[in-house]
Description:
Layout: H1 10-37, H2 43-65, H3 69-91, H4 106-127, H5 142-166, H6 172-178
Helix pairs in contact: 1-2, 1-4, 1-5, 2-3, 2-4, 2-5, 3-4
Amino acid sequence: xxxxxxxxxxxxxxxxxxxxxxxxxxxxxxxxxxxxxxxxxxxxxxxxxxxxxxxxxxxxxxxxxxxxxxxxxxxxxxxxxxxxxxxxxxxxxxxxxxxxxxxxxxxxxxxxxxxxxxxxxxxxxxxxxxxxxxxxxxxxxxxxxxxxxxxxxxxxxxxxxxxxxxxxxxxxxxxxxxx
Length: 179
């Protein structure tokens, strides 16, 4: 708790940078997993990645501009969308050849990650409540800058991976493989 008493938004920026790093790890892992399995991402998997990127944008804004209820609302909304997509994927018939990670399919891990993001955003919004929407003019720390750059690279790599698989239109390869 003392982390949040030091200065307005200082501790919050550090914790948000840590969560943004975990989002980066999730994005990079999903791209690596897709590359290792030499498989196409299904349209719902692409939507999950987009939801993860949008949740990361809310965290990035908290790191760069300081804590704001609007930024946490962006993260929560994107994470709730990711949870809905994960549930939709869970309702689809399971692929017998699907690779598992510690006994779970990737959409189950995405569900857990999105759930953690929702809980984090709601908890942090409660802790950052007294700072409100004030614009805190302060330079971003080196750690924050590195994590923001890593997120930018991960988001661009995710976009590039999807464009390389599908081009700029609907990915027909993955539609025929999934449904």
